[in-house]
Amino acid sequence: MNLSLLHKNALVGGASAGIGQAVAIELAALGANVFVMARTDSKLIETLHMLDTSQGQQHDYVVADFSDSQTLASRVSALVSERPIHILVNNTGGPPAGPITEALPKNFLEAYHNHLICNQLLAQAVLPGMKAAGYGRIINIISTSVKEPLDNLGVSNTTRWAVASWAKTWANEVGRFGITVNNVLPGYTATGRLDEIIQKRAANSGQSPEAVAEQFKTHVPLRRFAAPAEVAAAVAFLASPAAAYIHGINLPVDGGRTRSL
Ligand SMILES: NC(=O)c1ccc[n+]([C@@H]2O[C@H](COP(=O)([O-])OP(=O)(O)OC[C@H]3O[C@@H](n4cnc5c(N)ncnc54)[C@H](OP(=O)(O)O)[C@@H]3O)[C@@H](O)[C@H]2O)c1
Hints:
Elements: E1 9-12, H1 18-29, E2 33-38, H2 41-48, E3 60-63, H3 69-82, E4 87-90, H4 105-133, E5 136-141, H5 154-174, E6 179-186, H6 192-205, H7 209-217, H8 228-239, E7 250-253
Parallel strand pairs: 1-2, 1-4, 2-3, 4-5, 5-6, 6-7
Helix pairs in contact: 1-8, 3-4, 4-5, 6-7
Bound molecules: NADP nicotinamide-adenine-dinucleotide phosphate.
NADP nicotinamide-adenine-dinucleotide phosphate is lined by residues 14-20, 38-40, 43, 64-67, 91-94, 114, 141, 143, 186, 188-189, 191-194.
């Protein structure tokens, strides 16, 4: 099985923490040159130090805020004019939690912008390089809410579904160029994002954060949260040559939490 990403260039969003950071580490370990992207340069520089260079990989970082899509687009255009990107991992911070009955129009617009519009800009920017290389992997970190809406994540549920439909449409159009498009759907994954959700639920319910976490785990057949590296392993496999015929799918990495087949 060919898992080598040597001489492949990857661009990973939300890579200064959590799932994105774990993905960057894993892609670098398989040999890729990785561009890590997020808003905070100090955290990106820390992340660069975690990336393997033993096969001569060269890594760099891009500071970009997904709420400013024009700057994002111009930074990524500059990047791809120097080095084609073969692997794009679309990932950023999740929309704030809360019931859909209380969500404001601007919450939906922001989430749609940061998750869908930015994915579109990034995918369009890397497409010519992927076509020229005859190799492309677009992997979107979404959520199991694509399959089953999650309680108290109204804006997120609504936006994720749009991203999944966007990705499937891209898959239909770009597959013939050797470019695959797939979605990874994390379940509960031990990151800052999950901590925030647990803290908020605890504050609203009067329970301790530990009690909320234990309650969450009862919904998971494996009875634990994922480590970010476990989600990253799935992303790295989809990025590899070995996964060339896996295309247009939604892959839950959720310890069995999703009840549907
Ligand atoms: N953790 C879970 O249990 C879980 C489950 C299902 C789905 N997900 C989804 O998976 C994705 C990643 O989650 P995570 O748990 O890894 O989150 P995280 O630990 O909060 O990390 C989010 C990353 O995105 C960056 N980021 C946030 N807002 C940004 C913006 N406006 N522009 C650019 N970068 C931004 C952050 O860096 P800076 O702050 O430096 O910009 C950080 O690198 C999210 O969409 C999340 O909803 C997570």
